[in-house]
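Data availability (excerpt). The following record was deposited with the supplementary files.
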Amino acid sequence: MKQLSNLSSPQLSNWLTQASKQAKKGTLPNYIPLLQQTNPSLLSICIITKNNYLLTQGDSYIKFPLMSIIKPFLLLHLLSKFGAKSIFKKVASEPSNYPFNSLEQLQLDQGFPRNPMINSGALTLASLLPGKDSDTRCHNLQQWLNKQSQCQLFLDELMLKSVQSLPNPCNQAIINELTRTNHINDPETTLDTYNKICCLSGTIIDLAKLGLLLINPPKIDSKNASIVREMMTTCGLYEASKKFTDKIGFPSKSGVSGAILSIVPEQGAIACYSPPLNTQGNSVGSLYLIEKIANYLKS
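Predicted structure:
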C-alpha cells in the first residue's frame, strides 16, 4: 500500500475540483436551520499521519460542528473511563440496516440500543457522562478531547440554539423509548447533553487530529482505540456502512454537518468537509474524496 505522505498537493487539488462538482448532487439538511444556511460550495480536506505529516487544502479555516462524528469519541472517552465490559452492558455492537435516527430499530431490539454510532446508542452513552448537568458533561468531554489530541474544540452556542429551535421528534421518541425501558433515567439532561456534544465544533485540522487518537495514541489504551475503529467500520456510515467497508475498507464516521473522518490503519487520518448530503445523511463530496484517496493508496 502507498503512503499518505506520498500524496502530492497537485493531485489532491485535482480531486477537490472534482469533488466540488460531485457535491452539487447533494442537498443541505433541512431540520437544523443554521446547517441549511451553510454555503454548499465549502470544501476542505486535511490529511495527517502518525508521523505528523500534514497536508490541507480548501476552506481549512472554516469551523463546523462535529455532529455525529462526536459519537466515536464519546465512546472512546467512556471506554477509557469505565472499560468495555461496563459500556457494552448498556449498548450493543451490531450494525443496523435502519436509518441513524430509527425508532423502529430500537423497538425491534426491545429498547436495547443496536450500536454506539446510531442516535439511540449515542443518547444512552451521553447519559453515562459524569457531571451534575449537561454543561458540565459536555465541558468535561470537550476538555478531555482537547487535551488528548491537542485540538481546540469549542461549543458553538449559535449552532446549539439552532438545533434546539426546532423539535426533533425522532430523537424525542427515542428518548421516550429508552426511558420506558429503563436504559436512561434522566431524559431531559441526557437529550440536552447529546445536543451539546454534537455542537462541539472545530476546523478540519482539529478533526484530523482527533482521528490520530485512534491510531496507536500514547495515552489511549490501544484496545479501546481498536474497539472504536471496529465500530466505525461496521456502523460509522449508518446503513451505508457495509457497502462502504466492502468498497473502501477504512473505519469512518460521518456527520450531518458534511464532515467525514476516515482512519487509514497504521498510517493516519483523513478529514473531509463538504456540506451537501446524500439521502443517507453522508457528505457526497467527502465520500468522493475518500474513495479517490483509497484507490490511490491501493494502486
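Summary of structural features: The longest strand covers residues 44-49.
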